[in-house]
Amino acid sequence: MSLAIIFSACSSTGPSFTSMNELELALYNRERPPEEHVYCVKEADTSSFIRKRSCRTYEDWIAHNERAWMYINVLNTEPNRVMRGARPR
Questions:
Q1: What CA–CA distance (Å, rounded) separates 53 from 42?
Q2: Do residues 32 and 14 touch, judged by C-beta distance below 8 A?
Q3: Does residue 6 form part of some domain?
Q4: Is 28 contained in some domain?
Q5: What is the total count of domains within the chain?
Q6: Could you report the per-residue pLDDT of 40-70, keeping only the tens digit for each?
Q7: Is the pTM of this model over 0.85?
Q8: Would 1 be classed as within a structural domain?
């Protein structure tokens, strides 16, 4: 009997936010603090016209946006200035 409990605990991965509708997501968020709220957006990859629903917690969206901002800043720097150790503009 304890073996069945272990298997059921291991197979449980939590709710699938991408398959939730707006009402289900609102009910899920109501039980959590604001920083753990899940937000979903539909976004298309640059190589595709197909929009995909992407869901993350508020904290994950903040981290995702910070990484994207840092990546864009790296792309906007002048290669020679970075290689010489100068501060980027």
A1: 4
A2: no
A3: no
A4: yes
A5: 1
A6: 998 887 777 888 889 999 999 999 999 988 8
A7: no
A8: no
Angstrom distance (rounded) from CA 40 to CA 13: 19
Tokens representing 74 are 């790296």
- In this structure, what token pair is assigned to residue 82? 């970075």
User: For residue 29, what are its two tokens?
Assistant: 């968020």
Residue 17 · residue 40 · CB < 8 Å: yes
Q: What's the chain's length in residues?
A: 89
Domain contains 7: no
Residue with tokens 């289900």: 24
Mean pLDDT over 1-21 rounds to 63
Q: Domain residues for 70?
A: 16-83
Distance CA 38, CA 18 (A): 10
Residue 7 — very low, low, confident or very high, per pLDDT cuts 50/70/90? very low
Res. 12: pLDDT tops 80: no
